[in-house]
C-alpha cells in the first residue's frame, strides 16, 4: 500500500488471509480455504506470486532513495552527484631477495606470504654484492585489502631457486576491495553535504575519499604559531592522515582540493605538477599500524568442519583489519562472528592483545592515527 507514510508491503500470510476472506465472500462461508483444500491451494499459489510482485514493488520504491537503494541502482544515484563506486585495486609494495651474488630473479616471478597471498615482480631483480636485491615494483596477484602488508613479512618463491635463500615483502599498500554499498552511500551523503557552504576541510576529505582504496581520512589542523609536538604538526600547517590508497593519487586529490598557501606536513612527500608545469610538494601520512594478536580456544562438536581453524582465522582477520582508523577493536564482536559462521563450536574462549604475551578479554582502543592489523600467523586456534 502506498500512502502519505510511504510504501507498506503486505506479508505472504496477510495476502493469504485477504484472499481467503474474498474466497469466502464469493463462494460462501462454508467454502474450504485450508492448505489442503483445492481452494486453499489455488489461493496460496496465487498469493505466492503476488508476494513476489509486492517484493519487487518495494525494491522499486526503495531504489529512489540513497539510504535504501542497493547495487546498480545505488551506482546510478551516485552518478547524479558525480560519484562512481570505487573498483577493486591491486596493492603495490617492495620485495627484498637474499641469495647468491649476481643471480637475477626474472620479471613475473611469484612470491607467497604465509597467509597465502601471492605477489609478482614487474622487473628483473639482480642480487648485488651485499647479497640482496630490492625492487619497489612488486604487484599483488589480485585485488583487495588482504594483500596490504604494512610491516615486513617473510615470503617464499612459488618456484623455488637454490640461489635465493630468503624473501621479504614490505610496505605493500593501495590494495582495495570493491566499495561496499555502505561505504558508497556514506560518500554520496558527504558529497550532498559539501554542496552546501561548509569548511574547506570537508572538501579535502571528500576529494581524498574518492581515491580508490581510501577507507578513512583524518585532518589535524594547527592554526597557532606554536608547533604541536603531541600530534607532530608544525605551526600554521595541517597534518592529513589517510588509510589506504596509492600515495600519488592521494597527493593529487589533496593538491586539487586544498587552497593555495596551506602547508601540508607528513612523511609521505610527493611532487605534484600544476597545469603550467610548476612543481609543488604535497605531504601526508599513513596511519600507524598496531599489531593485534588473537588466541581462540574451542570446545568442538562432531559438526566442526575440517577447515574450521582456517575459517576462524579469516573471520578474525576480516574483522580486525576492517575496524578502521581511530576506532576500537571489540573482542566480544568475534564471539558473534565465530558462533554465527562456524558450526560445531560448543564453547569458545577468545583473548586479544597487542603482544603474544599480553592477551586477555579486552578491547583495544586505537588513536585517531592508528589502524589495527592482524595476519594469519598472529591468530592461534586451539
From TrEMBL:
Domain Baseplate protein J-like barrel: start-end pairs: 94-175
- One Pfam family in the UniProt entry: Baseplate_J
Quote the InterPro entries the UniProt record gives: Barrel_Baseplate_J-like, Phage_Baseplate_Assmbl_Protein
Q: Which protein is depicted?
A: Baseplate J/gp47 family protein
Amino acid at each position: 500500500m502506498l500512502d502519505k507514510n510511504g510504501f507498506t508491503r503486505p506479508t505472504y500470510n496477510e495476502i493469504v488471509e485477504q484472499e481467503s476472506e474474498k474466497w469466502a465472500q464469493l463462494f460462501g462461508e462454508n467454502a474450504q480455504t485450508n492448505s489442503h483444500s483445492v481452494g486453499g491451494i489455488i489461493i496460496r499459489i496465487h498469493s505466492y506470486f503476488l508476494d513476489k510482485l509486492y517484493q519487487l514493488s518495494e525494491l522499486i520504491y526503495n531504489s529512489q532513495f540513497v539510504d535504501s537503494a542497493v547495487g546498480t541502482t545505488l551506482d546510478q544515484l551516485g552518478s547524479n552527484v558525480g560519484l562512481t563506486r570505487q573498483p577493486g585495486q591491486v596493492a603495490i609494495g617492495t620485495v627484498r631477495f637474499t641469495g647468491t651474488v649476481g643471480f637475477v630473479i626474472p620479471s613475473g616471478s611469484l612470491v607467497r606470504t604465509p597467509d597465502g597471498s601471492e605477489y609478482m615482480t614487474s622487473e628483473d631483480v639482480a642480487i648485488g654484492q651485499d647479497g640482496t636485491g630490492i625492487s619497489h615494483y612488486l604487484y599483488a596477484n589480485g585485488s583487495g585489502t588482504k594483500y596490504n602488508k604494512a610491516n615486513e613479512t617473510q615470503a617464499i618463491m612459488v618456484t623455488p631457486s637454490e640461489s635465493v635463500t630468503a624473501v621479504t615483502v614490505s610496505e605493500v599498500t593501495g590494495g582495495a576491495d570493491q566499495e561496499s554499498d555502505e561505504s558508497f552511500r556514506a560518500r554520496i551523503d558527504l558529497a550532498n553535504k559539501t554542496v552546501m557552504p561548509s569548511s574547506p576541510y570537508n572538501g579535502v576529505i571528500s576529494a581524498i575519499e574518492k581515491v580508490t582504496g581510501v577507507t578513512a581520512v583524518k585532518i589535524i589542523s594547527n592554526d597557532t604559531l606554536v608547533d604541536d609536538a603531541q600530534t607532530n604538526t608544525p605551526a600554521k600547517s595541517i597534518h592529513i592522515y589517510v588509510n589506504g590508497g596509492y600515495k600519488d593519487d592521494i597527493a593529487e586529490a589533496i593538491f586539487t582540493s586544498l587552497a593555495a598557501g596551506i602547508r601540508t606536513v607528513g612523511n609521505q612527500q610527493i611532487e605534484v605538477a600544476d597545469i603550467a608545469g610548476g612543481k609543488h610538494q604535497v605531504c601526508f601520512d599513513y596511519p600507524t599500524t598496531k599489531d593485534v594478536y588473537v588466541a581462540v580456544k574451542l570446545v568442538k562438536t562432531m559438526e566442526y568442519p575440517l577447515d574450521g581453524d582456517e575459517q576462524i582465522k579469516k573471520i578474525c582477520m576480516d574483522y580486525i583489519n576492517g575496524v578502521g582508523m581511530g576506532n576500537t577493536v571489540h573482542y566480544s564482536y568475534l564471539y558473534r562472528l565465530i558462533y554465527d559462521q562456524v558450526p560445531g563450536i560448543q564453547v569458545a574462549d577468545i583473548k586479544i592483545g597487542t603482544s603474544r604475551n599480553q592477551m586477555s578479554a579486552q578491547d583495544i582502543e586505537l588513536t585517531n592515527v592508528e589502524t589495527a592489523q592482524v595476519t594469519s600467523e598472529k591468530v592461534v586456534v586451539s
